[in-house]
Amino acid sequence: MFGPCIEYSGGRFFSNGYIRLASTGRRTHRVAWELCRGPIPEGMQLDHLCRNRRCMNPNHLEPVTQAENIKRSLAARGFCVLENHCGHGHEFTAENTYMCRGIRYCKKCGSDRVKRNYAKKRAQVSA
Description:
Homing Intron 3 (I-Ppo) Encoded Endonuclease, Chain A, two-stranded antiparallel sheet, single chain
C-alpha cells in the first residue's frame, strides 16, 4: 500500500460500509479504479487491502476473485478456520463458539455486543 486512505465524503453511505456516488449510484472505489487503472478485469472484484471500505485510493485496491475476496474478508474479521482465537482474542473453545452457516462466532463477543446495545438503548430512553 502506498499513501493514506482517501475517503470520499460527498456520496451516500450504506450500512455495509461502502460509499456510492450520489449522481450515478456507483461505488466510489470502483470509479476511482477505472479512472486511474482502467476496467476491472472480467470476473474480478476489488479487495480493499487497507480493510477500509470507504477508501477509494487505487493503491489500496487489488483485483481478486470472489472466492479470494471472501476468504480475505473472513480472515480479517477473525473467522479464519486456522485461527484459534476470535478477532478480540477470545479462544475458540466448545463452550465459547457457535456455528452459523459454516462460520465460527465467539459467544463472548456476542454477549458483549448485546450488553453494549442494551446499554445504548437504555441511555437513549433515559435522555
